[in-house]
Amino acid sequence: MERFPNPIYVASPLLPSLDDIQGELTEIWGTKWLTNMGVKHRQLEACLKNELKVQNVSIFNNGAIALLTALKALDLPIGSEVITTPFTFAATPHCISWNNLKPVFCDIEPDTLTIDAHRIKNLITPNTSAILPVHVYGFPCNVDEIQKIAEEYSLKVVFDGAHVFSTEIDGRGIGTFGDITMFSFHATKLYNTAEGGCLTYGDDGLVDKIYNLRNFGIRNEEKVADIGINGKMNEIQAAIGLLNLKLFREEQTKRMAVRARYYENLDRVAGIRIPRLRTDVTDSCQYLPIVIENSFPVTRNALYNILKKYNVFARKYFYPLCSDYEPYKALPSSSRENLPVANDLKNKVLCLPFYGSLELQEVDIICKIIAENV
Ligand code: T4K
Question: Which of 50, 64, 152, 216 lies at a 20 to 30 A Cα distance from 314?
Fold first, then answer.
């Protein structure tokens, strides 16, 4: 098989046309208003409220700062414990730690790769203040069970929804579950503002608090009331966001065709398992993870290297686990005994190239490389 002439990456950003961007820039240049909650910023928040079917939206300069602010806004006691998953991006536990809170890792479900809600209770102590589950790759967590546990133990729930833009569960926006949900609008996400993100939440009492925390805690020219941060999205990001809102559904449709082609090719390859979404959930089309089972002739790492030889850059999200990172590996909850499923799957999952402009013939070739694994 021929090597691809150009690299094929795991993601490729959704880009508005240069003409459309030019129009937006001309407007922004005309107003000379570049940031600090400008017109585009306000427009984007209003549009996202409808798109995500949520009560409140606050947009941010990136998803990590949004998540950091979400935890801060809930006033969790300093030093308290937040139960989370190790099978996620570094941002998730880091945002807990930056808030002077302690991450406690909980194992994951083998099918959805999300936090195993049935293991959460065992990790709750008098010092637990919140649960931070991740809807990883686009698979929703067991939101009902998590909500039940949170109510029983009076815990806050912040969902990391970096991968679930536009997902609905039984017609309900995924950003309506828990106390707060964070979405990421990074370039590699289905919907992007180059860098960006947002928080969604039902409690109107959080609107002003989050607004202020996002802007250094400043109330007015002479009063600073909270220890805030700079989480503001600028007008150029917001303009990209407004344009991409018109494009992302079409991108999603294209990705569905790409996904179908992968399924068609890989479902018949013994030793490859493709995790599937529940039927009551809409597909964000964020990532395309496959699981390389022990019965497959080569390991995940070997397959990753074989693909690379052909100029295909799949990714081992999320290897290593966050519980393997230097700052967390000594935590009692990071032990392999506590995380058997995550430790098994970290060596088996591979995210394949997945974006709308990926040609179906390219998908066929990638699948042939996988099937032949040489
Ligand atoms: N929570 C979760 C569960 C997350 O996954 C993330 C971010 C966050 C929180 C935090 O949200 P943000 O603060 O990022 O909004 C990427 C992204 O940078 C990161 O946003 C994402 N998760 C993570 C899973 O993936 P890397 O280090 O893998 O990115 P990078 O630069 O290797 O990009 C991957 C591929 O995408 C490249 O090989 C080529 C392509 N690419 C990338 C960029 C940046 C492009 O084609 N154009 C681009 O501009 O982290």
Answer: 64
Q: Find the residues whose C-beta lies inside 6 A of ligand 1.
A: 9-13, 62-64, 88-89, 91-92, 134, 160, 162, 184, 186-188, 197, 313, 317
Domain check: are 329 and 183 in the same one? no
Q: What is the DSSP letter of 332?
A: G
In eight-state DSSP terms, residue 322 is: G
> Per residue in 217-276, pLDDT tens?
999 999 999 999 999 999 999 999 999 999 999 999 999 999 999 999 999 999 999 999
Strands 272-273 and 288-292: antiparallel
Atom 30 of ligand 1: nearest residue by CA position: 188
- Residue 318 and residue 208: Cα distance in Å, rounded? 35
Q: Are residues 201 and 294 in the same domain?
A: no
Residue 33's CB is within 10 A of a number of other CB atoms, namely 16
* H or E stretch at 82: strand 81-84
Tell me the CA–centroid distance for residue 195 and ligand 1, in Å.
10
pLDDT in tens, 90-116: 999 999 999 999 999 999 999 999 999
Question: What global pTM score does this model have?
Answer: 0.97
Q: Which of 245, 261, 282 is the last residue of a domain?
A: 245
**Ligand 1: nearest atom to the Cα of 65:** 13
Pair 239, 270 in one domain: no
Atom of ligand 1 nearest to the CA of 317: 24
Q: Which atom of ligand 1 is nearest to the CA of 194?
A: 49
- Ligand 1 centroid – CA 30 distance (Å): 32
My answer on whether omega of the bond before 320 falls inside 30° of 0, hence cis, is yes
The Cβ of residue 271 has, within 10 Å, a number of other Cβ atoms equal to 13
Residue type, 126: P
How many residues are recorded in the chain?
374
Encoding tokens for residue 285?
């089309």
Please tell me the residue having the least CA distance from ligand 1 atom 15: 63
The Cα 51–Cα 183 span in angstroms is 13
Dihedral (Cα; 193, 197, 85, 77), 10-degree rounding: 160
